[in-house]
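Researcher: Structure for this, please.
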Amino acid sequence: MKDDAPTLQRFARSSTPRGTRPQAVILPGSTADVQECVRIAAACGVPLYPISHGKNWGYGDACAVTDGQVILDLSRMNRIVEVHPQLGYAVLEPGVTQGQLHAYLLEHDSPFRMDMTGAGPDASIIGNLLERGFGHTPYGDHFRHACGMEVVLADGRVLETGFGAFAGAQATRVFPYGIGPWLDGLFTQSNLGIVTRLGVWLFPLPPVCQGFAFKVKRDEDLEAAVEALRELRLHNVIRSTIHIANDLRVVSAQRGYPWELTGGATPLPDTVRSALQAEGGVGAWNAMGGLYGTRRSVAAARHAVRKQLRHVAHVHFFGDREIRWGKRLVRLLRWIPPVAQLGKAVESAESVYRLLKGEPSLDPLRGVFWRMRTPPDMTKPDPAEAGFFWISPVLPMTGTACREVLDIAGPIYRRFQFEPLVTMTSITDRALVSVMSICYDKENPEEAVRAEACYDALFVALRDRGYIPYRVGIHSMPKLWPEGGTYGDVLSRIKQTLDAGNILAPGRYQPTRTGRVQDKTGRQK
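Model: Predicted structure, token format:
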């Protein structure tokens, strides 16, 4: 156990204006260690807050929901227990990172890859999956491709979900549901148990993988693009997630806020925004995704994508060959001004393509430093140094819903003097997750206050119009459930059954029990 001041301060850091300070930090090395920690915590009435690697960027980082909890840091539990060479699944502990598994698969010449998020090589695979995060490939919905959990409960017992409940079961890692009620979902976005081992499915490397990208020049063309992409997703022409980013989100990955062009003024003037859009060669909206399969099936998919989008935008397709030739052309003709834009396009395509092939990348993290006045070290960026929130409403995959969300958010961003850095991702064939960034300067206390107020206003306005986030940060968990709701009541009853002492992560995705209040550690009084 560590309770020295530097350790506590490190675990209290957050990209949001206010982190929380733990009592201490414990680093167990095995499931048995976790069981012992839980038993001691229950006997002493000490709240435990488990984390995998503490890379929950934009939602609280490594912080607990409230001050005074003991962080249970599972990063030492970093064993790749199994990778099945034919069935393509991996059994992992919480400390296994995206970079670690990718290196393992390369070293063992595996024909499979793990879908990667944009959170970088050091992010935990299980940590993201338990938040129901998403990535870029056909396996982009991470929880949908999980199979078989090992969970330490609040009383110290170990639960094996699915067919894992049966000794010697042969299908534990290939059929997630087992028999009877499916329990796995209870342990995602919850505080009902500590997941210490998990099976995840890997996607098979196809004969052909190609990226595609297009941009629309006008903001009002977004609706047509979304309508066309939905049809391609519904008919399984595009099997990957599709990421659609506005101009500011793309520009923020290329450079920081242009303080020199604005004289320090915020938010970004429209004239400067237009200039950055032209300089970066980006559209009002920019879409990208992947095509996977045989040479013939990918060729057919390319034809269908072009046909479906012919009235919306010109689509570019790219793979290893196109990126290689593009980089060579940029080197040869770098003194010609238009080639600078081509260089940015090639760089962007290569970054996207790595993720489409299941390679972890730091590039998507660049945008969180948008408002920092001192540029960070991008060889090893630390998002905890930046100031940003993410708010992530889920919406139907229709142009009408996209426009309504933007119409709600736009005036709120302007009121609090921030730029809307927005992406929309087709997490299913029928739903989009819109990740909206609120980037601010952490060195400016007044701006930090405005950022928090902007988040709160966005959260309430979107929620009240029916656009609920797919995940939330530690600061907004108390806002989730209305008083007296049946859903919250059922969750409270399950919590009471599995963790009557409220030892595990008090306050995490947890409704306040009717007639009771929470003290400063989140425990019920």
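Researcher: Any notable elements?
Model: Residues 337-356 form the longest helix (20 residues). The longest strand covers residues 431-440.
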